[in-house]
Design brief:
The protein is built from five helices and no strands. The chain is mainly α. α4 (49-91) runs antiparallel to α5 (96-134).
């Protein structure tokens, strides 16, 4: 259930989104995971729900952290490219090719930044569902 080992392609936004979609599978399937691993009251003696919830929480947190780092890395990379393009544009202000590249990078940066908002919503939803099902079995550590 861990995030895939694929690297995030920051150059092509559609590939960037596709890899994120694959990396978000754990969050998309959180309800199914909880239903199949956390026992109901009648089966509570057969499975260690505390350990199961703890493992699921750790896997989920690892996936969240991996995605967050990947998105922020791409944002930093794209911002760096934009900085270089701005410098080139300052030297050659008449170049339409540079202007188009700069606009393209600005658009890509805005879309990547919006992925951080999507990530926050996905993470909040997953944590809410996790809390609803695992609150009596496992209490996650407080985040500082």
């Amino acid at each position: 259930m861990a995030a895939p080992a694929r690297t995030l392609n920051c150059e092509d936004f559609s590939m960037f989104q596709e890899v994120l979609r694959v990396m978000r599978n754990i969050d998309d399937r959180i309800v199914h995971s909880l239903n199949t691993t956390v026992p109901t009251v009648s089966f509570s003696g057969k499975v260690d729900a505390s350990e199961t919830c703890k493992q699921l929480y750790e896997t989920m947190m690892e996936a969240h952290l991996t995605r967050d780092k990947a998105i922020k890395s791409c944002i930093a990379q794209t911002s760096e490219v934009m900085g270089q393009l701005r410098e080139e544009r300052a030297k050659d202000s008449d170049s339409l090719v540079l202007l188009r590249q700069l606009r393209k990078e600005q658009t890509k940066l805005k879309m990547m930044q919006s992925e951080l908002n999507v990530e926050e919503v996905v993470n909040d939803r997953s944590l809410k569902v996790f809390s609803e099902r695992c609150r009596i079995h496992y209490t996650p550590p407080k985040v500082k």
